[in-house]
UniProtKB/TrEMBL annotation:
Keywords: Chaperone, Coiled coil, Cytoplasm, Nucleus
Organism whose genome encodes this protein: Oryza brachyantha
Coiled-coil region: 25-56
Pfam families reported in the protein's UniProt record: NAP (PF00956)
Protein name, UniProt field: Uncharacterized protein
Family: Belongs to the nucleosome assembly protein (NAP) family.
GO terms for cellular component: cytoplasm; nucleus
Main location: cytoplasm
Domain of life: Eukaryota
Segments of this protein annotated with the region Disordered: 1-20, 229-257
Residue ranges, compositional bias (Basic and acidic residues): 1-15
Gene3D superfamilies: 1.20.5.1500, Nucleosome assembly protein
Length: 257
């Protein structure tokens, strides 16, 4: 029978060593999880602080946007020009849309007071021969389960002018054949139901996040200028590469001679 001293000196089996390694690994993972939980807590606190700042400066920006809209009203075809200059939005306007957009006086994006509950986009028009409304609004409401509720103005088209629902007619009373989809289908209830069920509303996203913050950039075609500058830089890099290749070829021919 083995003594206690002999048992102490007995070599450890693979199973015992494995148990020790597993215990050490488990302990390390538990400590790592504690650190990760701490990081998540800090991130949550940071998000809350950022949201508070967003809420504060949203109120500060509001009157500035109002003043900007008042100035924009004095510039003919401002929003039409900005839309047409935008690489995505410009593709959405048909010839009929462009005629209607000549009556567009202002665009307004208004976040909910707490920022995270939703926002609205309102297009304000001067009296026009196309529809009765002066304001067309889409409201996006976010709920806790990530569902989106979309509510839009039902456009009251004047007789024979409904280019969004295949209800447009000529002055002679003949039905017009519309090949391209109108921008104003964006207000149709069918599309809004798809947005509410998870489809991404790219138009709303681009207006809110890109056009609205600085429409002057697109009115002045600064976007195209920036794009051209990028192309020029890339072209210069290509030219430099070509020059380097030519130098290498010349050097190689000199060594052969």
């Amino acid at each position: 029978m083995a003594t206690a001293e002999q048992k102490a000196k007995r070599p450890r089996t693979d199973a015992e060593e494995g148990d020790t390694v597993d215990a050490a690994l488990l302990q390390s993972i538990e400590k790592l999880q504690e650190i990760q939980d701490e990081i998540e807590k800090v991130n949550e606190e940071a998000c809350d602080k950022v949201l508070e700042l967003e809420q504060k400066y949203n109120e500060v920006r509001r009157p500035v946007y109002v003043r900007r809209n008042e100035i924009i009203k004095q510039i003919p075809d401002f929003w039409l020009t900005a839309f047409l200059s935008h690489p995505m939005l410009g593709e959405l306007l048909t010839e009929d849309d462009q005629k209607i957009f000549k009556h567009l006086e202002s665009i307004d994006v208004d976040d909910s007071k707490d920022i995270k509950s939703g926002y609205s986009i309102t297009l304000t028009f001067s009296p026009n021969p196309y529809f009765e409304d002066t304001k067309l609004t889409k409201i996006y409401t976010f709920s806790g389960d990530e569902a989106v509720k979309v509510k839009a103005t039902s456009i009251r088209w004047k007789e024979g002018m409904d280019i969004a629902n295949d209800g447009a007619y000529t002055e002679k009373g003949d039905k017009r054949i519309l090949v391209d989809e109108s921008f104003f289908t964006w207000f149709n209830s069918e599309k809004n139901r798809s947005f509410a069920h998870g489809a991404m509303d790219e138009v709303a996203d681009v207006i809110k996040e890109d056009l609205w913050p600085n429409p002057l950039k697109y009115f002045n075609n600064e976007f195209e200028e920036e794009f051209e500058l990028v192309d020029d830089d890339e072209g210069s890099d290509d030219d430099d590469d070509d020059d380097d290749d030519d130098d290498d070829e010349d050097q190689g021919e000199g060594e052969e001679n």
